[in-house]
Amino acid sequence: FTTDRIRNFCIIAHIDHGKSTLADRLLEMTGAIAKSDRNKQVLDKLQVERDRGITVKAQTASLFYNHQGQQYLLNLIDTPGHVDFNYEVSRSISACQGVLLIVDANQGVQAQTVANFYLAFEAELTVIPVINKIDLKNADPERVGSQIEKLFDIPREECIKISAKLGTNVEKVLEAVVDRIPPPVARTDDPFKALVFDSSFNHYRGVIANIAVFGGQVRKGDRIVSAHLGKTYEVNELGLLRPEEHQTQGLSAGQVGYIIAGMKDVKEAQIGDTLYHREQPVEALPGFKPARAMVFAGMYPMDQSEYQGLRSAIERLTLNDSSVSVQRDSSIALGAGWRLGFLGLLHMEVFNQRLEQEYNASVIVTAPTVPYKAILSSAKLIKEHGSEEITIVNPVQFPDRSVVSEYLEPVVLGTIITPDTYTGKIISLCLSRRAVQKNMVYIDDQRVMMKYLFPLNEIVVDFYDLLKSLSSGYASFDYENAGYQSADLIKLDILLNGLPVEELTTIAHKDRAYTTGKAMCERLQDAIPRQMFEIAVQAAIGSKVIARETIKAYRKNVLAKCYGGDISRKMKLLKKQAEGKKKMRLIGRVEVPKDAFINVLKRD
Ligand code: GTP
């Protein structure tokens, strides 16, 4: 294929607007997969993706398309929609010249539509607006067209109205890809230069890097160098992704495909890295800003004997997801473990679910925290840390007020789009989360877009769920980093019969300490089953208790039922209890169900 017959594009959209469904249709129409019901969302390969019905990892597929008697090579990169995975979107975009911006004909423009549009716009890509789900009874493509015109300054006539589900007008999407998106500017006779835009790890084959060839060509057996580490590799295998791997002899300028070159670790194929021929060094591509972890949590084995197993599971999972940061950590209460950093809470939950599903690991996850900062005032500590400013990702290590001159918390700029009937409720919710309104505009006669500056910790755990429930699912939310602000912070401990529960230690804003502490005690009271003795549940700042609940003792003896019964029945009952206990954590004498911890953090 000469480059003028190549188009590289990705599909971006708000969650559930139909990216994966459209991708399926495009794959079918170009013969990459058979038309059948079993081929639903073929690009969502992971178990979690299928369970949750979301795309987590971007996927690539090369399609052959016949247009007006000419054969074209279309490289499609499917991207995730959720805000936590925005990073994947920006990566995918850098390998493309255009995007299909999908908008649901019923829901209209949503918060992530806006965020994703700007990612594409700033990268100067051609944007083809596609209004999907026109088959729905409540579809209003005209209204959506005018929103797109108003917000993105794209003439409404440019919108393609389709039903990805039924296949209506999908042909027009392919035509627009060829007609409107420019071919890649890449020359086959230039030196070889490729961008690594994704990578994964396979136990048998090593690192599989997804690359976009920006110039020249590469063939099997070539000796290539990765610019970042300057190491040389021999190309063992390469090819197209259709979406299954399809080996070829070479890849040339403008093409997108995969390459295997004896790299043993994804760190060797860093995302954003440049590959070139050993004999023809080129200037490295600008690459990407590294993903920044926004949510940190401790992960510990349920039992220290499972430490090695969990370690190798975490290692293997992070091999495929370089956006997770890992640090060894240990605690008196929980033993040896790790502190992991994630892009957001969903990212953390997905990681945890994959650990349990794919590696059968049983993990204790501590209260998630955002990366706070402290400006130290103690000369001794400054010397110890080598700097005045420290980042705190573990609440247990929160430095005391007496050695700190200022605490800082991360803030984000949030975008909320909602039907105007819910604005009142949403504004009160935002105020209760210490948010400051920055902007509010109507995007049509019924929908409002609001911008708020939020402390990140106020939205990390449950803000999105609350927003959804108080707007009957209609409001959408997205956010971007906006730096740090000064904040009056304290460390809040939760005690069970006087013993601190390390999993639940959190950092809170001073004004919110009492409400947070009280609510955590109440929810912990509900989450812990009654036991043989009374349990005091307390929230404390230092040695000062600020809230308390009591779990009354449990009177009945489980074995009473078996009184006089045969011994095997008694054993069975005890065994059942023991199995139940496996999922319990012992704090002092108190048994706490493992899933209690995360539930306790969710506010009503
Ligand atoms: P994420 O991968 O989670 O970001 O979602 P997505 O944008 O890929 O959406 P997906 O393709 O999974 O579709 C979401 C839902 O909308 C699914 O239940 C689809 O069946 C449905 N859907 C997609 N396209 C259409 C359409 O044209 N009409 C109707 N009625 N439903 C559609």
From TrEMBL:
Natural source organism: Xyrichtys novacula
Signal peptide residues on this chain, from the entry's feature table: none
Record's protein name: Translation factor Guf1, mitochondrial
Lineage, top ranks: Eukaryota, Metazoa, Chordata, Craniata, Vertebrata
Xref: SUPFAM superfamilies: EF-G C-terminal domain-like, P-loop containing nucleoside triphosphate hydrolases, Translation proteins
Family according to the record: Belongs to the TRAFAC class translation factor GTPase superfamily. Classic translation factor GTPase family. LepA subfamily.
Nucleotide-binding recorded as keyword: yes
Subcellular location: Mitochondrion inner membrane
Annotated GTP binding sites: 13-20, 78-82, 132-135
Domain Tr-type G, chain residue ranges per copy: 4-185
GO molecular function: GTP binding; GTPase activity; mitochondrial ribosome binding
HAMAP family reported in the protein's UniProt record: LepA (MF_00071)
One GO BP annotation of this record: translation
Its membrane topology: Peripheral membrane protein
